[in-house]
Design brief:
single chain, mainly alpha
Length: 168
């Protein structure tokens, strides 16, 4: 069975790639999402939950910016220049995974006061919640397409490569 580069990245170098590219960013982002719900319901902008939310948002934003540039230079550019993409599902999975840098980077910028610095707490909460929602959407699109067998959407593996793999 063929797999997208997204799934291959997570499956290779176990358990380190899974931890670095999935567990760490998802646990931090989910921490932000859960604490965000608490803040939305309680409107407590200064308690421990808000501090956890702020720290997790800052860390995941900075961390994912690093992941973005690492994968851009070690995977996206080489795959693009060599024609190594495994069809539409592969491109969508990797592309949407990397699009997570926009909302997660935005969270960090918001936490560091680089955007919306003069906004009141309600406006910052609104922007924060939108960024979390956007990340959840792009991350789930990446996961769904990443789990697809790339031959389902307009890709056929090279028959020579398959035959070489069978003889090795």
């Amino acid at each position: 069975m063929e797999m997208t580069h997204y799934m291959q990245l997570l499956a290779d170098n176990q358990p380190w790639n899974l931890l670095m590219f999935m567990a760490i960013p998802v646990v931090l982002a989910e921490t932000v999402a859960v604490t965000e719900l608490y803040i939305l319901f309680t409107r407590n902008f200064s308690g421990l939950v808000r501090k956890i939310n702020s720290i997790a948002g800052s860390i995941v934003g900075i961390y994912f910016i690093g992941v973005f540039f690492y994968l851009l230079y070690t995977a996206v550019i080489p795959l693009t220049t060599s024609g190594g993409w495994r069809g539409l599902a592969d491109i969508v999975a990797v592309g949407f995974y990397l699009l997570g840098v926009i909302p997660l980077g935005g969270l960090a910028l918001l936490e560091f006061g680089l955007i919306k610095k003069n906004a009141d707490q309600e406006e910052k909460l609104r922007v924060h919640a939108i960024l979390v929602a956007v990340f959840l959407v792009v991350a789930h699109i990446a996961m769904i397409f990443g789990m697809l067998n790339p031959t389902v959407i307009w890709w056929q593996p090279d028959s020579m490569a398959l035959m070489q793999g069978m003889t090795q």
